[in-house]
Amino acid sequence: MLSFNVLVAVCLAYVAFLFIVAFVAEKRAEGGRLGWLRSPWVYTLSLSIYCTAWTFYGAVGYAARSGLEFVTIYLGPTLVMVGWWALLRKLVRIGRTQRITSIADLISSRYGKSNLLGVMVTLLAVVGTTPYIALQLQSVTLSFAVFAQDSHVVTPESWAVTDLNATALWVAAGLALFTIVFGTRNLDVNERHHGVVTAIALEAIVKLVALLLVGAFVVWGVAGGAREIFAMTEASPIAAWDIDGGRWVSLTFLSAAAFLCLPRMFQVLVVENADERHLATASWAFPLYLFLMSLFVVPIAVVGLAVLPADANPDLFVLTVPLEFDRAGLAMLSFLGGFSSATSMVIVATIALSTMVSNHIVMPIWLSAGQGGATVSGDVRNVVLRARRISIAGLLLLGYLYFRLSGGGAALAAIGLISFVGLAQVLPALVGGIFWRGATRLGAAAGLGIGFAVWTYALLLPSFGESGAMSAAMLAEGPWGLGWLRPQALFGIDGMDPVTHALFWSMALNTLAFLAGSLASFPGPVERLQGADFVNIFRFGAGTRGWSAHMAEAEDLLIMAQRILGPAEAQALFQAQAAEQGKEGYLPDTTPEFLEKLERELSGSVGAATAHAMMGQITGGAAVSVEELMRVADETAQIMEYSSQLEAKSAELGRTARQLREANEKLTQLSIQKDAFLSQISHELRTPMTSIRSFSEILRDGEEIDAGARTRYAAIIHDEALRLTRLLDDLLDLSVLENGQVTLNERPASLHEVIDRAVSATQSRLGRLRIERQAADERVVLFTDTDRLAQVFINLIANAEKYCDAPRPVLRITVRQEPGAVSVDFVDNGSGIPRESQGVIFEKFSRLSDTRAAGGAGLGLAICREVMARLGGRIAYLPGQGGAAFRVTLPRARAEAA
Amino acid sequence: MRPPREPVFLERQTYRRRRLMDAARLLPLLGAVLFAFPLVWGEDGGSTAVRGLYVFGVWFFLILSAGLMARRLADSDAPPPPEGGDAPE
Question: In its keyword annotation, does this UniProt entry include Transmembrane (chain B) (predicted)?
Answer without folding.
Answer: yes
